[in-house]
Amino acid sequence: MLKNYRLRAKFFIIAILIFCVSLPIVAATSYYALRKNVEREMFEKAELFLNTIESVRKQIGKVTRPAVMKETPNKFIVEAMSTSFNARGVAERVKEKFPEYTFRHISMNPRYLPNKADAFEEGVIRSFQADRAMTENAGFVSRDGYEYFYVAKPVASEVSCLQCHGAPDMAPKEVVARYGDTAAFGWQANEVVAALIAYVPTRLATESTMRALIVFGSLYSGLFLFLVFVIDMVVARSIVKPISNLAETANNISKGHMDMEFKVDSNDELKVLSDAFERMKTSLNKAMQMLKK
After folding, report:
1. What pLDDT score was predicted for residue 129?
2. CA gap 120, 126 in Å, rounded
3. Residue 215 and which of 12, 70, 197, 256 are 20 to 30 A apart at CA?
């Protein structure tokens, strides 16, 4: 197929074929690797987000609430003592910096109605209730026509939680006045009552991966073309030009210019070929001289 083309043309054709075959393979492999890396980063960010919210809950429950109770033993200040209220507030502040992330403190019977778990989220809570050893639930889910990556962590009730979530008649009057006497009561200690869940749209991973893939593809194409150019220069100087010189010398000798020499400035196979031509010229010259006698 390539026998009618010159050496450099053959090289370029082969290089183009290699590029056309390798580019889709490199692109597919790179996309998979980049996508996995982006998903891992998304997971780490979402997990960090949830850990931050969980830390806020623990700080309020174990430090802030007891300290405030000492100062105001007969009053429950929701804004200072409620773990859920403060966790939601911190989540809203974080969302201002990361608007693409969605955080929900989901429950099947919440006091704050926007935290009401939907069918999927109820399934997440029940999975934690069924397997108390499970500390995390992550995966992909379709919501409102879009695909999301989610990470969820269980929320288990502690003894201190029963002050507000035990019997309604034992709860602080400020809590009952604000939320009523039906929502989020009747808890038992050490049971999964809710979950923290973060959603990240997968389009972010796709967009980030495509941007990285375009950069990588451009670098790969540029590097490939640069290598082709360098190799072509090497081939032209070390192979094509010496062969052309040998051919020109042989052509001149065939016209009777026996004083010309086959010369190659290298010690490779072309040097061997040049020496063979030189010996052939010497033998031919001797044969011609013998014929003249």
Report:
1. 93
2. 10
3. 12
**Average pLDDT score over residue span 48-69:** 88
106-132 average pLDDT score: 92
Alpha helices in 180-292 (DSSP H): 202-235, 241-254, 269-292
**Side-chain half-sphere of 24: how many Cα atoms within 13 Å?**
3
Alpha-carbon distance 271 to 285, whole Å? 21
Taking only the tens place, the pLDDT of each residue in 127-162 is: 999 999 999 999 889 888 888 889 999 999 888 888
CB 264 within 8 A of CB 242: yes
- End position of a domain, from candidates 151, 182, 202: 202
> pTM of the entire structure?
0.66
88 and 190, same domain (yes or no): yes
CA 140 to centroid of chain Cα atoms:
16
134 three-class SS: coil
What does the chain come to in residues? 293
* 209 in Cβ contact with 31 (< 8 Å): yes
Closest CA to 171 of 184, 158, 188: 184
DSSP β-bridge partners for residue 199: 102, 150
Instruction: Check residue 124 and give its pLDDT.
Output: 95
Same domain, 276 and 151: no
Q: Record the tokens describing residue 229, joined without a space.
A: 């150019």
